[in-house]
Amino acid sequence: MREEESNWFEELPSPEELMPLSQTLISPHLAVAFDITNSSHHQFPLQPPSAAEDEPARTLKRPRLVWTPQLHKRFVDAVAHLGIKNAVPKTIMQLMSVDGLTRENVASHLQKYRLYLKRMQGLAGGAAAADSATDHLFASSPVPPHFLHPAARPASDHYLPFVPGLQQHRNHHHHQQHMAVPAHFGSPRNAHFELPVLSRMGASVPGYVEDVESGGRKVLTLFPAGDD
DNA sequence: TCCTCAATAT
DNA sequence: TATATTGAGG
Asked: Where is the HTH myb-type domain positioned along the sequence (predicted)?
């Protein structure tokens, strides 16, 4: 029995006030490897505080996120690089660097993923029957071994695959002014969506929004379908 | 403030 | 069903 409120968003802080919280949790090293080269600049389309009437980007209720295998893979890669102890929702979200992805999206997914890992630990050693269609998504990406062995990993957890020639110059295109609609809601902020060693998704995936109405429900598909 | 988890809602 | 939301507890 939730009440429907129509103007709850009018009291939310402006985007600029929220930004400072979501930085510096990722080491420069990791940021480079994941090609997040915006250490000191906001990458979000900032909105002039005046016209708050069409600021849909972050204040509006988003459609449900669809975790495609591609998106989940990026999630797993982020967790793998961060190490179990550093893999918390906010940090994962930042490492994934997907526009439109919220901390709650990640938190919810992380919770389920942990349950999945727990089930797999239980089965570790004997039978192999862990996919009940619910786990299909999770089974679509390989689980890094140390996910299942909490103590089988040195203190410095995050191994960082060195990627040759990644000392690229950062892209200087802050030319996006106030856009009424999120630029590329649901796509990796970097053009080439490729992680150094762990993942080799074919070419760059041009993530895009897909508003699907199924059964009257609108969902948000972050990445085009495509199997591993 | 953020994280984690179980329960619950949609 | 898959994901979101809530609320307690740390």
From this structure: 67-118
**pLDDT per residue as tens digits for the range A35-73:** 655 443 344 443 444 444 455 656 678 899 999 999 999
* Lookup: nucleotide whose C1' is closest to A219 CA: C3
A58's CB contacts (< 8 A; 6+ apart) are A15, A18
Distance A104 CA to B1 C1' (A): 15
Q: Å between A73 CA and C2 C1'?
A: 17
Residue nearest to nucleotide B1 (CA to C1'): A21
Span A213-217, average pLDDT: 58
pTM to 2 decimal places: 0.63
What are the tens digits of pLDDT across the range A153-189?
544 444 444 333 223 333 333 333 333 333 344 556 5
